[in-house]
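TASK: fixed-backbone design
INPUT:
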């Protein structure tokens, strides 16, 4: 049977996730007994902390094993709203929140809720791999806005003005950013906000890496800017901040009217996020100060180690990560394409990194430093050897 005729034709324009593909290749080599250094991981390498697991165990013992309200337990939505109000200065309450099966679904839900056929969605590049694919599924029109290297890959109001039209519906921001590790200051966000005010444009602000941010850099939520909350959907979740990638709990926060309509999609698709993982998330929000100190200092030490090490490698030029656990490196001076660079590095030195075409740019690789110091040191030595032999 020719399944091509059966399948929804939209699928032919959608790509597999290149990050997941490279990560699974590295895992496969490791399973075959090879000493692979995995610099491709998109998740913290720590186990979920014990206090969160205990909350989940307690929930299981108490029989929290059934459907929950489709948008999440009220208690969790209240706790998220409190967190957003206090930490992020976004004024909201439980009715502004939908808890989702991971932040990825929250991003998709926001896009599905706002984008009509042909509406333009502005995606600054380099971007997280899934945004364009989600926009395609929603039949939106992708407007990639290349951010300039000399601006540290941050868009400016000038950049924005060059792409906004009256068909623009949504601007997707992500900071600290995957893959660049760069974040925006309050002033820069305010300039973006001013640039879009004359248009009917909504902002989807994906702030999933907010807690992995270094030195004394402050994370500012777009929705906290004066008046911006009316036109912003904030996405966040527990995957990266609490090392809970497998638990699948994320959320979106936005104006009540949008939340009410978007709820129809979850009612009729996922039904609800996992019941006892929601209880674990409530536990996570209660007792997290020491945990945040630990992840911040650990990732910052590793960032320093890898940044200094990679800077010493011939023809590789890393950006200094401000947040996330990714180091974004210009490898164009090696004269290899990023896919060749990543494939050869994996085959010849057993180091796995992510090439950049999936992020909407060529000439870079993303190195994840979500691994031990020992692995980072080994990986740097192998990369050094690899580039000096090209
Ligand atoms: C920028 C960004 N947004 C969203 C997500 C999705 O997070 P989750 O695992 O909670 O679905 C990721 C995961 O890699 C990400 O990098």
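OUTPUT:
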């Amino acid at each position: 049977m020719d399944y091509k005729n059966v399948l929804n034709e939209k699928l032919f324009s959608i790509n597999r996730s290149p990050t997941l593909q490279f990560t699974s290749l590295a895992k496969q080599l490791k399973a075959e007994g090879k000493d692979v250094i995995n610099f491709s991981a998109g998740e913290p390498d720590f186990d979920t902390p014990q206090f969160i697991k205990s909350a989940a165990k307690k929930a299981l013992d108490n029989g929290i094993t059934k459907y929950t309200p489709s948008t999440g337990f009220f208690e969790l939505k209240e706790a998220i709203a409190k967190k957003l109000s206090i930490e992020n200065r976004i004024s909201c309450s439980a009715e502004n929140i939908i808890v989702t099966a991971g932040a990825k679904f929250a991003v998709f839900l926001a896009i599905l809720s706002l984008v009509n056929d042909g509406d333009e969605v502005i995606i600054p590049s380099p971007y997280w791999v899934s945004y364009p694919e989600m926009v395609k599924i929603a039949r939106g029109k992708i407007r990639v806005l290349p951010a300039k290297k000399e601006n540290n890959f941050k868009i400016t109001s000038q950049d924005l003005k060059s792409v906004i039209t009256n068909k623009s519906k949504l601007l997707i921001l992500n900071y600290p950013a995957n893959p660049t590790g760069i974040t925006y200051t309050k002033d820069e966000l305010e300039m973006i906000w001013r640039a879009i005010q004359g248009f009917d444009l909504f902002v989807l602000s994906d702030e999933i890496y907010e807690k992995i941010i270094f030195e004394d850099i402050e994370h500012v939520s777009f929705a906290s800017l004066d008046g911006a909350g009316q036109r912003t959907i904030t996405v966040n979740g527990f995957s990266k901040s609490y090392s809970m990638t497998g638990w699948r709990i994320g959320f979106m926060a936005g104006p009540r009217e949008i939340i009410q309509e978007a709820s129809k999609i979850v009612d009729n698709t996922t039904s609800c996020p996992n019941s006892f993982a929601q209880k674990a998330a409530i536990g996570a929000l209660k007792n997290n100060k020491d945990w945040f100190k630990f992840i911040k200092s650990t990732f910052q030490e590793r960032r320093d180690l890898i940044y200094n090490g990679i800077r010493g490698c011939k023809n590789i030029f890393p950006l200094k990560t401000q947040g996330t656990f990714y180091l974004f490196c210009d490898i164009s001076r090696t004269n290899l394409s990023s896919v060749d660079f990543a494939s050869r590095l994996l085959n010849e030195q057993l180091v796995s990194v992510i090439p950049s075409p999936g992020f909407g740019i060529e000439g870079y690789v993303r190195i994840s430093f979500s691994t031990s110091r020992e692995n980072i040191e080994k990986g740097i030595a192998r990369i050094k050897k690899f580039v000096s032999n090209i």
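COMMENT: The domain at 65-286 is CATH 3.40.640.10 (Aspartate Aminotransferase; domain 2).
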